[in-house]
Amino acid sequence: MNQEQLVAELKNIVGLKEVIHKPDDLIAYECDGFTIVRARPRAVVFPNNTDHVAAVVKLLHNNRIPFIPRGAGTGLSGGATPINGEVLISLVKMNRLLSVDFKNRTAVVEPGHVNLKLTNAIAHEGYYYAPDPSSGMSCTIGGNVGENAGGPHCLKYGVTSNHVLGVEMVLPDGEIVTLGGTVPDMPGYDVTGLIVGSEGTMGIVTKIFVRILKKPQGVKTIVALYDSVDDASQTVSAIIAEGIIPGALEMMDRVAIEGVEAGNYPVGYPKDLAAVLIIELDGLTVGMEAMAEQIVDICTQFHVREVRVAQTDQERTLWWANRKTAFGAMGRISPDYMVQDGVIPRSRLPEVLQRISDISVESGLRIANVFHAGDGNLHPLILFNAANPGETELAVRVGSEVLQVCADVGGSITGEHGVGIEKQRDMIKIFTPEEIAAQVEVMRVFNPHNLCNPDKLFPKPSRCVEVKRAAHTH
Amino acid sequence: MNNFKWPDPPSVDKYSVCVHCGLCLQACPTYLETGNEAQSPRGRVDLIKAVSEGRMAINESFIDPVFRCLDCRACETACPSGVQVGTLIEEARGQIRQAEPLTGFKGMVSSVFLKGIFPNPGRLKALGTLTRLYQKSGMRKLVRGTGAMRLLPRHLQDMERVMPEVSARTSREVLPPLVPAIGEKRGSVGLILGCVMDVLYADINLATARVLARNGFDVMVPQAQTCCGALQVHAGERPTAKLMARQNIDAFLEAGVDYIIINAAGCGATLKEYEDLMQSDQEYAHKAGQFVAKVRDIAEFLVEVGYEAPKGRVDVKVTYHDACHLAHAQKVRTQPRQLLHSIPGVELIEMRDSDVCCGSAGIYNLTHPDMAEPILDKKMANVPPEAEILVMGNPGCMMQMSVGVHRKAMDQEVVHTISLMDRAYEAEKRSGA
Question: Which end of chain B is less enclosed by CB atoms within 10 A, N or C?
Fold first, then answer.
């Protein structure tokens, strides 16, 4: 099937205006939030409903043309990058909130529904959707399912997989299936759990059944400023050790603070600060005051320079806007950046930060650190300038070294951004070839012809003999 | 390599600030309408980068996204890094216009209006007089009666219907060179009359002068001033805009005023960005800086220097629309609301998404009606039904929202913030308070 025929067939399914195919019109689709690798898709198609998706997938499957589901393209590991000239199936027009059941605390959304819009739509009844990735104002819930997105509040409330009860999905051959449902605890394997975080390699989710939560009665946000990263890290451990589980526990180091302060939402943090902690308590108002005092005490024990409880909603909102735009704000202090997404046991924080700092010094590249400290989820932002010859490659290598540190202390190479193409090779840092091969086998059950987001997530077959073997036994 | 070959290209310093995070997407009206990355802020910046790096030619795939942008700059509010998307778009348009000058009918319209009429107050007045003649002579009745209007596209028909009555004289003719301060003099300001404001909304300029004088300022009206050049900057006609900027800079710096006051959001943003526009002009770059330091939107100014709250009552429920170039470009959001709250009797009911573009965007509603229309529909759906007056601070939005009111058969009055202030001061005078 040549390009012309393909475009005609796609238009036939979704409508004339819903297919983008001229080469220069596709440039904006060469990458998602991970910009280091760029490749042009064969076409972009905008289905409006599940039947459209199924028909498009069937067409592509029958002609053995690879394809990728894409949400808002805010992914950070290149999961939506069309490295094989795939057809991108953009789900941004399937963005409806299909139903809300307040009594049973569930909602059904289409994959293109923007994360924050769900909370906005149910806020009037006092409900919200808990997973809150920092890109919540733009990213889609379908994308969140693909990457098993987290966010500042997942320390207490869990990541996307803890809030998805079921999905409707188009399998890579075009068949429509429903997994799970609006009630929890379906019998049999937790297939929904398998789909969440599968990075679009098992099919295309077209409906998502999610849990919604009642808004906490009270919220208290505390900001603590430190002269040493070590003291801030000790505070994190001490708070958790006290048995307090804050709604969120976030940290930024000196370079990160420099970025956010140069960005659009400066708080006015002192320039010579080593670290900022944002600690948010939520829940019943009874006892919250005492708990806030307890936290202030802990901060003081670890030589906090200044610790403050937000006095107004405005203040609290600004602290969060400042923190949540940290990645984007790096553009103010560096032409390019690469965000890493390692996870470590919380207790190893000071030691890991020291090793990251050493890597920064050795490589000559600045590294800003933003973390969901409570979870031990680190986001080292490696700052570089792609215009300098060799610097991109250096940044990639530095990223890999940082992940090696995380793996060495018993952590993981991704907490919430996925593997995509960015960390395929890093998978071998935490899995044996046999373990990877086993995962590939599972993927093949759903995606036997490797058409749905091919060559992502796992090390390229050519690099890993075992995987290659697994891939060709079918 | 770089396919931007003319002066003032989008620079690597500006576009490299974008890290492609996508937090701008949901703020962009054209992305929300199309779902197309190329019609999003980061998509457009990406294309600008591609042309700049020689990966893309200046062709239709570039020109359409760049000109389809409303230049509303809501993305600048959303952007964590503060990418100057508006400036990048305007510079890219400048490049496009030099790569592919407009020809045929479009070229004629562009050179007649952007180069011929708007930079020339005399010609602008002549156009106003013609319009007034049309409105007053019975010709409008005739045209409407015979159905000749139906030959025009629908958005032009609607615009003809809501066009304000052109008053006999422009504000330039009515206002003396100096409107003296009332009471103790606190300083002197220069008033920018603009083009559309001067001819179509002369009464708003008069109200602005009255309110300023009422608050103790000498209002100077330099006669050598001209239109600010916003329409030209937005259309990529930068050489014309620069000539106009020179003329305004000279006129107001010579007047020696403490502040330069503007009551149109789009013009205010352009005036405040004269430094960017004039950066490559050795003679005027510095003067532009002096000029910019004095420019204030009228609402911003009153709140900054302090004003006497009116004692007269205006009993009305209003809702406020944030003009893009006030909210996003100038970051003026709270001041107009503060003015409204200070008027006895005014009840402000906030509208949802008050800072989302109405689709006017200079002449965008004329150049891209297919996009402006759905954007306007969304805006009108957010107007609280109990509001009796729609308040805003930009003439383009006033025209567009009037079209919206007309189309939806609603009955709200569309009023400039300063006009409402003026009403309250007038009521105060009448009551002798």
Answer: N
